Amino acid sequence: MAVKKIVAVTNCPAGIAHTYMVAEAISEKAKSLGYEVHVETQGASGVEDRLTPEQIKEADYVILALGKGMTDEDKARFNGKKVVELPVSDALKHIETLFDDIDDKAHVFETSGLKLGADQAAVKEGVMSYLMAGVSGALPFVIGGGLMLAIGSLMVQFGMANTALDAAKDIQPSLAWVVSQIGTLGFTFMIPIMGAYIAMAIGDKPAFAPAFIATYLANSPDLLGTETGAGFLGAIILGLSVGYFVKYFKKIRLGKNFQSVLGYLIIPFVTLLVFGLLTYYLIGPFSGWLMQALLTFLQNIPTSMKVIGGFVVGCMLAFDMGGPVNKAAWFFGFSLLSSHVYIWYGIVGVVTLMPPMAAAIACWIRPKLFTQQERAAAPSAMVVGMTVATEPAIPYALAAPVPMIAANVLSGGIAGALSILFNIERTAPGIGIFDPLLGLIHPWYAYYPVLAVGLILNVVFIIWFKSAWVKHEEKKQAQKAA
Length: 482
Hints:
InterPro entries: Bacterial_PTS_Sugar_Transport, PTS_EIIB-like_sf, PTS_EIIB_2, PTS_EIIB_2/3, PTS_EIIC, PTS_EIIC_2, PTS_IIB_fruc, PTS_IIC_fruc
Protein name: PTS fructose-like transporter subunit IIBC
Keywords: Cell membrane, Kinase, Membrane, Phosphoprotein, Phosphotransferase system, Sugar transport, Transferase, Transmembrane, Transmembrane helix, Transport
Largest sheet: 6 strands, mixed
Domain PTS EIIC type-2: 127-464
Structural class: alpha/beta
Strand order of the largest sheet: 3-2-1-4-5-6
Number of strands: 8
Domain PTS EIIB type-2: 4-104
């Protein structure tokens, strides 16, 4: 009997945790069934283990576990193949049954239709999916820029000069100043890139350049004559508007003489003309006013309300561990970085570490509450959790959703409130627990105690809630047996 051959592609909005966890899960499950498997990951580092034309041609089935969709051009590789497409989070949850009745789940992909089956809308469509595509594009700019700014700041703190360039006085810049300026460029381009990737997620490549330029314009107060730039609100408005404009523009049929230049010449030019003028006269000033109003509100709300907001954001971050609620709270904090508002992203630096680390510690303290598989995964959950990837906590939550999610949410909310109370700021994404050492979290002396309190509470709640849950389940099983 011939060995069944599987190829798969995995991606997720941030391109960090789900992408690789699902790739590993698919690979291990397929191999356990005796299948030949090849998995392509589209993560933060780009495309790795790219599927070859031969692998795709020989494959019996294609699995697309997607969190941010794929371009039409990328999907075209699988024309005529039997394809199973599902959200990346579902692939992780249902990995044990993913290959059951796979022929019934699969649909033959036709390039002209650009539809892969019933799950297509769940993966590709949705505003949050588009926004997270924007975040995925902006992340490298913020991470690189944030680390450069941190290095520049450390150089000054260690006594190096911070001399700016002054060509008129023939003053050459110092190294620390140059490093900081390079880092600043990362934050300068963060928002235009976000707008461009949002647009491209909807309208594909022709939407990228118009959205980038229009969003850059909206964030240029000197050009617009506004008090402030449009910030992430401008990126959202322009990214979505340009994306949908291009999406429907592409449906126009101009005849074979002009159709070939539609995508790379006509659409980008017309879109830039329309949205360039709209941005200058309308969208830019309006978005700038809206952004200024939001920043003024966030700066002037009383501390008590900020603490309540911190509790809510912390609860959201801990609720579904990389799911839509988590991503909404994460996006809010991340998007404010370009406006130099760092306290809401400070909550992310605390709360997102807690669920996987707490699950691992609880495993070691009360191993009888967890299965052998969960105990074996504890070291990995601890290490990965320390680097701000909440997803390793998902298997623990799936096994006992009520106690685990309740423990995570309650402790996450408390930690979020404490983070606001102690004014913890995170200036850029980094590597989790080590961020204060890199100069990305301030004040460091408040960060670690708040994290420790949140982590201790999370572990206590897990043991407390899960012990009660296990007793309840045992009692229910005993009643059924009787």
